[in-house]
Amino acid sequence: MNIIAHSSVAKAAVFSVSLMSGLAVANPLPTDDVFAINSFWYTPIPEQVPLHPNSEGFKKDFLRQKAAYYNTVNIQTTDYSSPVYLAASNTPVTKVTQWDCMRQGFLDPNLGQQWLSVPIPSYALPSKGTDAEMTIYQPSTDTVWEFWQARKVNGARQGCWGGQIKYASTNYGIFPGHYGATATGLPFIGGQVTAEELERGEIKHAIGIALVEVEDKAVYSWPAARSDGVNPYKLANRIPEGLRFRLDPSVNVDALPMTKAGKTIARAAQKYGFVVWDKSGAIAIRAQNSASYTALGKPDPYPALFSYKPNYAVLQGFPWDKLQFLPMHYGRP
Fold first, then answer.
1. What is the side-by-side order of every strand in the sheet holding 161-165?
2. Are the beta carbons of 317 and 258 closer than 8 angstroms?
3. Cα separations (Å) of 28 from 31, 269, 297, 306?
């Protein structure tokens, strides 16, 4: 693999911070290049690119699912998205122990090693939903930690599952082996939308998306490391986890009847596309959890950024019938 690295220490030092609408905005942003600069997360899709031979069938099933499950594409900002906490170089470290939330009767010793020394800010809280997700990113050590079913017991940090990515700036942005909190092993920090990106008006990476019904777990596409798909009746047109797709680049996004945030997401969907990284109760993308901001005493930034529309209405006007699905394993080195 020809992986190109960048300096996370230098990156952390060059943020020029300004205040816009009470929200700290940096250009560049930490989420612009956590992983290798030639990672699929940050690589634009050429306008002229071969499509999956079943692109039309996948689009048909996407539209079917959208119609069947609330007729919307939601943006998760609270219960089912991960807060991301940037740890300073001097943040005290703590041991996070695994707990057996799935009642398997055993713990993973390798995961315990990954969580031996984690720089978790004292104010860090997991998401409020049943997944209780949380991400820690420390640029100075070039490391990402992810937790699922995170909790505190008698003041001690615990997690049921997750993982660690060392040397993130040389990693394509995929958890090794069976680690990581999403079904595919694709990290939240790679594919979530952030408030700072929406304020800036530009998202410089692919966007993770969760579908309701996907192809069987035996069939998945790079960059997914695995899948939790179920298709016992072998129904046609089910989209595999890991598959990438985009908004047709010929669509005039400026002319769409959408919010500013919606148009920002649509432009990223044209340039970098979506990647199927999980399942959900409705089709949804994730924005960085509002706890990332409120834990610091800041207001929830999303109501204003969403033009005070409900989360499920922000992407209204998005031309989902103009999706184009890419071939299996598109972009794999």
1. 84-86, 134-138, 143-148, 161-165
2. yes
3. 8, 20, 23, 22
Which of 82, 90, 84, 93 lies closest to 115 in space, CA to CA? 93
Domain ranges in the chain?
A: 45-80+189-325, 84-185
pTM beyond 0.85: the answer is yes
pLDDT in tens, 27-76: 789 999 999 999 999 999 999 999 999 999 999 999 999 999 999 999 99
* Residue 203: strand, helix, or coil: coil
Question: Could you tell me which of 212, 325, 195 has the C-alpha nearest to residue 265?
Answer: 195
* Predicted pLDDT at 210: 98
Task: Tell me the pLDDT tens digit for each residue of 93-110.
Answer: 999 999 999 898 999 999
- Evaluate the omega torsion of the peptide bond into residue 28 and state whether it is cis, within 30 degrees of 0: yes
